[in-house]
């Protein structure tokens, strides 16, 4: 082999060697039969089937969306601009007049409640928020001393609370940002009775669910802080079977109802649950007077019957004497011989 042919031969050998190496590498990279035909689990099979159905129904979904848009457009064209019965939601929201009255739920009693009661308070606060959003005269709603177990429970079970609107949720105590002269603590133990609401004031509701374990606590706190206190005029309009202690949301809703109607009695009987056995005081007085009259009549009947019994008891000895005489005469007649 000549010297001129040697470089060309070595070059071709190198090329063939590189091709063989690359083919070996590709063969090594190809999955084996065992790897290529691995069994698919039922869950993976279901996912694949769903994905396939989703892809197949893409056009159908698109068509349905178009039809829905057309239907809604036709409904809007056929619908009048505003409902005559006033049931249009947007129209109602335009009629809303916000009250300047501030209504505060004081959550500073967190350490006095067990988790069960904390959850109840959370539900009551949710109810207050919902009712205030729906009210025709919504108040300036404050949630103060917010923290501890209550905040933890809200974070775990109601994460949407951070997006609530028209509410001021503050970790501070209400006394830190509201002047003392503007505060009135609502407590059933107060000797002062509200006649009407002053919308320039801030009314405080104790956020406490304690099942009467801490009687007079809210009244004591108001007195200790030198804050004005009062109770709702419940006793002037309502006679109840139970104590005059209401849930947080009941007090809140009664105030909302009063702002709308300006009538305490209507507000009480609209909001109070039936289990409280509430009746108007005038009806309660009438029933009391009827009961007294009935008792008097019963007493009179009892006295008459007792007199008759006494008479009967007095007459009975004479009757006994008569019977003795008759029996004695009978005995004497029988004893006479014929």
UniProtKB/TrEMBL annotation:
Residues 88-279 form the SAM-dependent MTase TRM10-type domain. It is an enzyme of class 2 (transferase). InterPro entries: MT_TRM10-typ, MT_TRM10-typ_sf, TRM10/TRM10A, tRNA_m1G_MeTrfase_euk. Residues 329-338 have a biased composition (Polar residues). Its EC number is 2.1.1.221. It catalyses: guanosine(9) in tRNA + S-adenosyl-L-methionine = N(1)-methylguanosine(9) in tRNA + S-adenosyl-L-homocysteine + H(+). The keyword Transferase applies. Residues 309-328 have a biased composition (Basic and acidic residues). One of its GO terms (molecular function) is tRNA binding. The active site is at 210 (proton acceptor). Residues 61-73 have a biased composition (Basic residues). The keyword Transcription regulation does not apply. S-adenosyl-L-methionine-dependent guanine N(1)-methyltransferase that catalyzes the formation of N(1)-methylguanine at position 9 (m1G9) in tRNAs. Probably not able to catalyze formation of N(1)-methyladenine at position 9 (m1A9) in tRNAs. This is tRNA methyltransferase 10 homolog A. It comes from Odocoileus virginianus (White-tailed deer).
């Amino acid at each position: 082999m000549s010297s001129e042919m040697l470089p060309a031969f070595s070059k071709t050998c190198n090329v063939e060697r590189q091709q063989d190496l690359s083919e070996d590498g590709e063969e090594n990279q190809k999955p084996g039969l065992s790897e290529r035909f691995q069994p698919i689990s039922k869950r993976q099979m279901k996912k694949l089937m769903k994905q396939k159905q989703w892809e197949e129904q893409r056009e159908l979904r698109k068509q349905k969306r178009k039809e829905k848009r057309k239907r809604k457009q036709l409904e809007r064209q056929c619908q009048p601009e505003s409902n005559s019965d006033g049931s249009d939601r947007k129209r109602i929201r335009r009629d809303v007049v916000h009250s300047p009255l501030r209504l505060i739920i004081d959550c500073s009693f967190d350490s006095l409640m067990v988790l069960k009661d904390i959850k109840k308070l959370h539900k009551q606060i949710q109810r207050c928020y919902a009712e205030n959003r729906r009210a025709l005269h919504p108040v300036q709603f404050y949630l103060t001393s917010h923290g501890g177990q209550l905040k933890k429970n809200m974070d775990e079970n109601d994460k949407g609370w951070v997006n609530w609107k028209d509410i001021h949720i503050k970790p501070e105590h209400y006394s830190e940002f509201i002047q003392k002269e503007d505060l009135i603590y609502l407590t059933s133990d107060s000797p002062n009775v509200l006649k009407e609401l002053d919308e320039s004031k801030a009314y405080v509701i104790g956020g406490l669910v304690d099942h009467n374990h801490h009687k007079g606590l809210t009244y004591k706190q108001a007195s200790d802080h030198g804050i004005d206190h009062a109770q709702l005029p419940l006793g002037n309009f309502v006679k109840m079977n139970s104590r005059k202690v209401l849930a947080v949301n009941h007090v809140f809703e009664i105030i909302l109802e009063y702002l709308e109607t300006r009538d305490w009695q209507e507000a009480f009987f609209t909001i109070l649950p039936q289990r409280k056995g509430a009746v108007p005081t005038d009806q309660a007085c009438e029933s009391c007077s009827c009961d007294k009259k009935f008792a008097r009549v019963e007493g009179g009947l009892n006295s008459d019957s007792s007199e008759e019994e006494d008479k009967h008891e007095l007459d009975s000895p004479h009757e006994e004497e008569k019977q003795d005489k008759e029996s004695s005469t009978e005995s004497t007649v029988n004893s006479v011989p014929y």
